[in-house]
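Lab notebook: predicted structure, single chain.

Context: the supervisor wants predicted structures on file for every construct in the current expression panel, including those that have not yet been purified. This is the next one on the list. No modifications to the sequence; it matches the entry in the shared construct table.
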Amino acid sequence: MSNIPLSEYPRPQLIRDSYQCLNGLWDYEIIGDGVNKSGKILVPYSPETPTSGVNHILQPNEKLIYNKGIKWDGDFDPSREKLILHFGAVDYIADIFIDGTKALTHRGGYLPFEVILDKAEFDLRVEVEDPSDTKEQTRGKQKLNHGGIWYTPQSGIWQTVWMEKVPNTYIEKIKLEPDLTGFFLTVKTNKPKELIKVYIEGKYHEFPSCQRYRVDIENPELWSPENPRLYTMIIESECDKVESYVGLRTFSTGLDSNGNKVLTLNGKPYFHHGVLDQGYYYPGLYTPSSDEEMVNDIKIMKELGFNTLRKHIKVEPLRWYSYCDKLGILIWQDMVTGGGKYKFPIISAPLVLGSFLKDNHYSLFARKDKAMRDEWKKEAIEMMEHLENVTSLAMWVPHNEGWGQFDSADFTKTMKSIDPSRTIDHASGWHDQKIGDFKSLHVYFKKYKFKKDKLNRAVILTEFGGYGLKLEDHMTTEKTFVYKDFGTKEALTDAIVNLYRTEILPAKEQGLAADIYTQVSDVEEEVNGLITFDRKEVKVIKEKFAEIKKMLRV
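Prediction complete. Output recorded below exactly as produced.
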């Protein structure tokens, strides 16, 4: 599969030996008012990307149609086995046809879905519609009229499409609940109370499927960014076998030696020193050119001294999360924002004025459509379930800067009931509802001075900085956006180091629990990245930048 893009197994915590990647060249059509295009598209790149070979921004009145003849490469007996067709992510509404018959309609652009097949050879047709930011669905930073902090929209297939063969009774999913001495494991099969066998650390465990089972680890070695220890295991049912892994760790809040409310890792105070990660690449936009591109981002951020990535309103392929697990970096996972057209006084004025509103005013927050509010909650819960086994995922972030925010107090309770093992930043930036574990702040245009929270919550600086440098040979647009511009790598590095020395270090000494600098890379017009959009240049001097890690003692 070496000449097939992104052909690695897509699900690192549930690996089978039966796998066929369907990425590559497919036939496509785009039809709509005055538009009729066709040709070849490179899957899994959206038609908006140069990589796809299409370079067309899908409009709300257009339909994108994929066609491909599919044949399973191996043996298949439909009386004993099933074939499962997997889609990593398709934005936004996807109708799936097998030999002309509709098999499924899926809504939502960020989560996987599947079709169970009863034949090994068939014609696949995928019809896609995407209203982008003209409707209220989840879309993150996609905008038809993009620019500044809003980016080129993405449509259609943008994560791996693949097939696997499973027995008629098979392992559907696993649930991992780790702590400091072991973990609880639930293995879901489509045959309840099936005998499950687990092999881990030279030990053998046996228990019924669909029931929670405790696995203790002798002399446990805990996972952390400094020591990303993972335990591999083999899980077998009566007819099926998968490979997985788990890391032992806990996330919470607690008190430091000075009595400040802080974040903890494995029961001890741990300062989350992080960077905002938009997850956009050039030329693939939502989709990287290779796994190496994802790995290199993580490695560079670790080399610069960071121990945390805030994944900003995007859900990545599961392989990205597995690299965070293996390389050792914490994840704050944003939920993907949606809603109608945002109102400037709601999403931007609080940055300067500090004014916060109750988020049950649906009209003010561009959330008048109840059906779309319900769809967002459904997708957010599905995202939590999709990512629940990620070792490095430390915090959920449901809302950002009031972008389609609503009913966050109630939803935070729902999230806690689903996942009590992680912390939640209920309103990143502003429109704080005076609940939860955190006072979350974004500061860009004024000097940051630490203030304790009146409700005795941990104070976290969840966006700041955004200092920029334009490197002409690595830009994709002439127009640029930046919070504060510098002319050379030396000047940029000195300014960032000074920012940490004069603002973040004093705040940390007074009780600040986390910092998230903006941002990992340039994205289109935004040139405030630590690396360029094309990933060819690190824009700061690593040796000087290392002073930040030393001064913060992280």
